[in-house]
Amino acid sequence: MTALLTGLVSLLVFGAVILVHELGHFLAARHCGIHVEEFSIGFGPKIFQRRRGSTTYTLRLFPLGGYNLFSPLPEDNEDADAEETAAPAPQPAPKQPRRRSLFPVVVQDQPFEEATAWQRFIVTLSGAMMNFVLGFVVLLVLVITSGKLGSTTVAQFTGNAQSYADGLREGDTILKVDGQVCRTIGDLSGCFDGTTQTHDFTVLRNGQVVHLPGVTVGPSTDADGNTIAIDFRVAALSKTPRHVLQRTGTLFRYYSTAILGGFWQLATGQVGVEELSGPIGTATTIGQAMQYGWQDVFSLLALITINIGIFNLLPIPALDGCKLIFLLIEAIFGRAAPQKLQMVVNTAGMVLLLWLMVLVTMQDLTRFL
Fold first, then answer.
1. In the 8-state DSSP scheme, what is residue 34?
2. Contact status, residue 310 vs residue 256, Cβ threshold 8 Å
3. Contacting residues for 125 by C-beta, under 8 A, at least 6 apart
4. DSSP element (H, E) containing 180
5. 118, 178, 204, 252: least buried by Cβ within 10 Å?
6. 308 pLDDT higher than 80
7. 5: number of CA atoms within 13 Å, CB side?
């Protein structure tokens, strides 16, 4: 039952991430008047299909991706009967020029290739942007449903706090730690790693800015005997819209920075490919998060969707990031890169990504099965 539930929750998580990504491409295409032949979630055999308007909506067996199929509309065929050629044919109404505005109100079903470079740029970019929107919304839900929000104002000290001995006082609002600005509890938490270290503080005390060099902050123990990262507590904040949005933004920045740091370490060889996880490893992690509650699953969902958004924007062939570079060149210089070059680059990238997917899947099987 646990494995079945883990599989179901994993499908929901993967499905949500894929759906919002492809929905971003789809909605941007519709607003730009671009025809979408098929909107598909998943790959492989069809499970469900429905035609609505000019688009076919499809659900496929393997929920590990999705796509929007852009294709030119078929030309209208005009059948003329030889026996009626003598009769004067009505003159067709002159074609109205296509609207080239960035976001036309009416969907005109123009082929993707006929859209402007900027329109195609926005369509390509919108998938990752929707992943970021989903990540922000999920983090917002977590912040709203969490307990108290912390401030950067010192409320009390624990035990024989060294930070108090070094000059920090209750009521001090911490402005900077080692020169790093602290606007939220998230900023403040990022300044300490749970070990005993000496820091330079800048605080607001009784309306005046006070500099406190050489303040030692280290782990301490609370009244219940639990080890905590720092030896002082901060005051709680009321959950006003401003404070909630600030905390959500801090979490979003923290996740994004951590993900970008991971990609940088991978690119520079600081970590190896063996550290990567594929769908199997991610599903296993989701199963572990389920043991701690829905908040941990939501936190993991936010991490995954932000990760997918950033990954798709990397300038790697076959990903949206590489396509955006080609479209940006076309938009600036008025001429597209040679199709042969784009095809070779994207094909090479696709082969590389497929190889990477097989590799991490094999690693997951070895690690978890």
1. B
2. yes
3. 28, 313, 320, 324
4. strand 180-181
5. 178
6. yes
7. 9
Q: Which residue reads 């330079």 in tokens?
A: 200
What is the domain partition of the chain in residue ranges?
1-19+122-146+240-369, 159-230
Packed helices 241-267 and 294-313: angle between N→C axes, nearest 10 degrees: 60
- Give the range among 10-19, 139-148, 154-163, 270-279 with minimum mean pLDDT: 270-279
DSSP letter at 102 equals S
For 207-276, give the DSSP string.
Answer: TEEEEEEEEEE--EE-TTS-EESSSEEEEEE---HHHHHHHHHHHHHHHHHHHHHHHHHHHTTSS-GGG-
CA-CA distances (angstroms) from residue 176 to 188, 210, 233, 242, 321?
Answer: 8, 11, 16, 21, 36
C-alpha 128/C-alpha 24 separation (Å) is: 8
* pLDDT tens column, 225-282: 667 778 888 998 888 898 899 889 988 998 999 899 988 988 888 887 777 777 788 8
Helix (H) or strand (E) holding 14: helix 2-31
Among 257, 258, 250, 309, which Cα is nearest to 132's?
A: 309
Round to whole Å and give the CA distance between 49 and 40.
9
- DSSP H/E element including 151: strand 149-157
